[in-house]
Amino acid sequence: MAQNNIFIPFDLVEKIFSHIPTTDHATLSACSQTSKSFRDSMQGRLFEVINVECAVVRDRRGDFTLADIKGVDTVHQLLSSLTTKPTLASYIRSFNIIGTELFPSRMTMRDPLGSPTPSIFRILSLLTSLTAFSFSGDPTSRDLLPIKERHISSDLKEAIQSLFMRSSASIKSVALTAIRDFPLEKLRHLPNIETLHVPSLIDTHIALPPGLINPKVLHIGDTRHHDSKILVNLLRLLTPTHSHRPTMTLSRIESLCMISPYASQNETHQHHSMKNYSMPPMQHLNTPYNDIANFNLARFHNLASLTLSGTLMSRTMSSAHPIVESRCRWMGAILSTLPQITVQDSSYTGPQPPLLSLFIEIGIYGAFTPADISALPFGQFTDVLNAAIDGGAMIKARIDLHFLNCKHRVKSFINEPKG
Fold first, then answer.
1. 409-415 vs 394-404, strand pairing mode
2. Which residues form the F-box domain (predicted)?
3. How far apart are CA 48 and CA 93, in angstroms?
C-alpha cells in the first residue's frame, strides 16, 4: 500500500453506503459516481422508492385519468431514464402516484387517439417487480378524492391491473386511497399481499376465482356509509354464501384500522338540511347493532393493534346528537367482542385472548360547552373497554378526543402495560 494512502475495505464502504436513506437522492447519486463497483448498487438504492405527482383530469368520455402536470418535468425525466437504461426499472420496488390536481373537464382537448400517451402510463408499463404500489391524493389539496372506481377511465384501470399481474409474485403492499369502491376481487391473484389500504369496502356479489386476500395490515377509511356499514361490508367479504366464495380472510391480521370520517360529515349535513323537519331524524343511527353479531375480535388471534377513528362535524351538534351517540355505540359494539377472560381464571384452557394495543381517536367540530363535554356518551365504549382491560384482553389503550372550534382539547384514558 502506498504511503499516506488510506485503504477502506470494500465491504465496509458498502455497509456504510447501505445506511443512506433511499429518500436522500443527492447523496445516493454522488455515491454512485465514486466507482463502477458501487454504481449499480447505488443506482438500485436511488430507484428503489419512486414518488411521482400527476394531474387527475377528465378525458373526453368524462372519466378520470392521469396526465402530466404542465411545467413539471419529473415524470418526463424518470421516463427518459427508464427507457435509456431499461435495467433501472427492475430496481423499483415501491411506486407511489400522488394526484395533485383535479380539473373538472378536459372536453376541449383533441381526440385521445391523436394525443401522445401520458408519461405515467408508459412508466407503469415498464414496472415488473414491485413490492408496494399506492395511488393517493395530495393530503394538502381540497380536491374531491377519492373517486369512485366506475368513474375511472378504462385505460387507467387496465394499466393498474396489468401492473398487478406483472408483479403478482412480489407485491406485498397496496394502497388505493384515491379510488373508492375498488373491487377487491382484482387483488385475489396477489398471494403475498400483506398490507391493504382502501377507502371503502364493497361486496360485488359475483362468482369469484380461487384465492383469498389475507392481509396482515388492513386499513379501511370508508367514505360512503354510517359506521356500522363498515363492519357489514367487511363481514360480507369474509363470509361465504351458497354460490360465492369469500373474498377475504383475516386469519393472520395483526393490525386493523377502521375510519369513517366523511360519512358522518355527510350525514350531519343531510340531517340539518332536511326541508321536512317532521321526518324522523336518522332512526338507523340509534338502532341496536344486531347486524354485526358475527363480528368477533376474539377470532383474530394475531391481532395486536386496533385503531378506530372518525370525525363529527356540525356547528349545532350537542352531546345528545344521534350521530355522537351512534359513533360511541359503534365503538362499544366492536370492543364488546373482545374475550372477557380474567387472567386469574386458571380453569380456562382455550386459546389465550389477543394482547391488543388499542387507539381510539374522535375529532369533534362544534361549539361544545363544558356541560356538553361532560355529557358526551363515551361510557358506551369506555365501560366495555374497562372490562376488556380488566379481563386481560389488552396491554395498552389510548383514547384521544379532539374538540375543535372550541377551547378544549382532551387526551384521556391511557392504560399503560402493567409492570
1. antiparallel
2. 8-40
3. 5
Cβ-based neighbours of 137, under 8 Å, separated by 6 or more: 56, 98, 99, 143, 145, 146, 177, 178
Rounded Cα gap, residues 113 and 247, in angstroms: 37
Instruction: Give the pLDDT confidence of 41-69 residue by residue, as tens digits.
Output: 667 778 889 999 998 888 888 899 998 88
H/E element, 360:
strand 356-365
* Per-residue pLDDT tens over the stretch 250-259: 889 999 988 8
Q: Is the pTM of this model over 0.90?
A: no
| Angstrom distances, CA of residue 295 to CA of 127, 128, 228, 232, 307 | 39, 38, 11, 9, 16
pLDDT at position 249, please? 86
For residue 152, give the DSSP letter: B
For 76, phi then psi, to 5°, come to -60, -45
Which amino acid, 101?
E
What count of other Cβ atoms lies within 10 Å of the Cβ of residue 32? 19
Mean pLDDT value across the chain:
73
Confidence of residue 322 (pLDDT cuts 50, 70, 90): low
Which tops the pLDDT comparison, 171 or 412?
Answer: 171
CA distance 385 to 335: 6
Cβ neighbors of 15 (< 8 A, separation 6 or more) are none
Q: Where are the domains of the chain?
A: 48-106+117-206+213-228, 254-265+285-343+352-418
